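#dry-run=false #mode=assembly
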Amino acid sequence: MESRMFTVITTRRSTRRFKDTPVPEDLLRQVIEAGRYAPSGGNNQTTHFLVIRDENVKEKLAAQAEAAFASMEITPDTYKSLAGSIRASQKGGYVFHYHAPVLVLLANRKDYGNNMADCCCALENMAIMANALDLGSCYINQINWLREDPDMLSYLRELGLKENERVYASLALGYADTADGLPVREALPRKGNDVTWIG
Amino acid sequence: MESRMFTVITTRRSTRRFKDTPVPEDLLRQVIEAGRYAPSGGNNQTTHFLVIRDENVKEKLAAQAEAAFASMEITPDTYKSLAGSIRASQKGGYVFHYHAPVLVLLANRKDYGNNMADCCCALENMAIMANALDLGSCYINQINWLREDPDMLSYLRELGLKENERVYASLALGYADTADGLPVREALPRKGNDVTWIG
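#status=ok
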C-alpha cells in the first residue's frame, strides 16, 4: 500500500514546460485543499493562497518581475538562481512562471515567525498532491525575491494581498508538455542531502 | 486511487505524546528517504539530515535547550510559541522533543538563500510519509530558534553539523501514545488559510 505513497513522493520532479490545457476544477481544488491542510506554527493557519488563472494577470506579473529583475545588479554574493533571473530579464522575454496555466502564490503575515516555514510546508503538500493527480508543478522563487518591491507589492494588493502580508513561496501548476501529458517521473538518485545517523 | 493521497495529507495531525516503542528501521529509512527527495533551490540538495535516536543525546539537547530558553526574556515582540518555551524552561522540566523516539534535525548552509525553504519542504515530505506509515510526527521549532546559540552550535557540531551549517527545522517522530498506537487523524476543518481565486 505505502509503496504507492513512497513512489508519489520520490517521483515528484519539477515541470518547466506546460500544456495550455486548463487544470480541471476538481483537481485544482484538491491540490489547494492539500496545501491548506499543511501544519502551521501554533496552528495559526494564516497562509493565504492566491490562485491565479487569469492570463492577463499572469502576463502582467511576468512583465513586472522582468522589469524589476532587469534593474538589479549581480554581485559576487547574488544567489545563483536570482542571478539567472536577472540575466534573463536583462536579455528580455523572461517569463518566470513558464506560462503554467495556474500560478499559486503563498503569502503570510510579515511579522509572523513561521511565515516562510508554513508557506513551504503548504507548497510541498500541493506539489505531492499534484504529482498524485498526474499534474506537473514547479517551485517558483521569483515573486518571493521581489517580496518588498514596491510596484510588485502594489499590484499584488490589487489582486487581494493584505497590507501586512508578503509572498514567501509560489507554485506553477499544470499538465506537463510531454508526449503523454504526464510529468517526467524517473526518480533520480540523490547526489547530496546527506544523512548522519546518531544512535 | 488518489483519495488515499488526499486522505493521508489532510489527516496528518501533530503528535505530541509518543510511545517508547522504537520506530522500525525500514520505516524510518522510508521517512528519511522521502525527505531527501524534496525539491531544493537549483536542485542543490544541501539539506543535511541528523537522525537522532540516542537517548543520551536527546536528553542533552533537551537540557541545553532548556538552559538557553530559561535565560531569555519575553518582550511584547516575542513570538508566542517561543514565549511558551521560555516560560516552560524557566519553570523547569521542559523537554521540547516530547521524548519522541526519533528526532530529525534538518540543517543547511547558512549562506544559501533557500536553506529554510528546502528544509521545510523536506520536513513536510517526512511528515506525510510518516502518516502514511501510521507514525506520528510533530514539527519542532526549538533548535531552529537556538540556531546561533553558541553552546547549542558547539554540541551540534560534535554530533556532525558542519561549520557552515545551521538547523532550520526539526521533526519528532514515533508511534503515538494512543490506545491503538495510531496518530489521531480526524481531519479538522480549516479555520484560516484563506484562498483568493483570481480568474
